[in-house]
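> forwarded from #structure-qc
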């Protein structure tokens, strides 16, 4: 049974941007209005020239046509009953963060050559962890680790009133299509502090918090590394 298919998109100049949650199926739209493309040829590829799907007059990757990139084998279907209406859209199943990027749909035999460009964003909400790294007489050093985010989030430290705190330069790395961000900050008074990861394009806000007590400053000779795992929503 096919998972729910997402088709949340908007046009940005000549590019259609499509959003999907990681693990779901997504439709990448491409069509020629009122044109029968059953006898025609079209193919989908990534911006990096990986072959996603190719159709030629009834022959395609799902019935023995060679050349499809290993990353997409068994994960791409088209809409055969819609071809007579010009619909060359494809469905990509079980999306991964690594699927994010630009996809190009082309009709090479039509004059002039016609193409559509889709930017796919596969969204993965991150996990947020807060670590208390050090305590001195005048400050507490906090570190926030945001792991597995897609797309790349903006990470901030905020105080109990929601004010953004001064922080170190974020350390960003990418692995498997997901982004990891580390951000340190020093606080000088007791209170509740939040690390907030915002993925503006997909409307995700994930945060975690830590309560810094007066006793931490008073007991400044006790050093250590205490870790607090944040909840994956704003209820923490």
């Amino acid at each position: 049974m096919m998972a729910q298919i997402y088709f949340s998109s908007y046009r940005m100049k000549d590019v259609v941007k499509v959003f999907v949650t990681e693990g779901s199926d997504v439709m990448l739209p491409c069509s020629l209005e009122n044109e029968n493309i059953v006898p025609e040829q079209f193919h989908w590829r990534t911006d990096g020239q990986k072959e996603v799907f190719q159709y030629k007059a009834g022959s395609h990757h799902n019935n023995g046509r060679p050349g499809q990139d290993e990353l997409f084998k068994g994960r791409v279907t088209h809409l055969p009953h819609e071809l007579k209406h010009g619909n060359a859209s494809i469905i990509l199943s079980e999306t991964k963060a690594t699927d994010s990027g630009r996809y190009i749909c082309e009709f090479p035999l039509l004059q002039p050559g016609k193409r559509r460009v889709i930017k796919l964003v596969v969204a993965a909400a991150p996990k947020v962890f807060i670590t208390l790294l050090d305590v001195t007489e005048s400050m507490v050093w906090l570190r926030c680790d945001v792991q597995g985010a897609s797309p790349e989030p903006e990470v901030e430290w905020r105080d109990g009133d929601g004010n953004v705190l001064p922080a170190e330069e974020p350390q960003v790395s990418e692995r498997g299509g997901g982004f990891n961000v580390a951000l340190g900050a020093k606080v000088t008074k007791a209170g509740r502090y939040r690390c907030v990861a915002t993925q503006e394009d997909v409307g995700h806000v994930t945060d975690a918090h830590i309560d810094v007590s007066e006793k931490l400053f008073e007991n400044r000779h006790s050093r250590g590394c205490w870790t607090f795992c944040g909840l994956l929503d704003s209820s923490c």
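QC bot note: The two ends are 35 Å apart (CA to CA). The longest strand covers residues 114-123.
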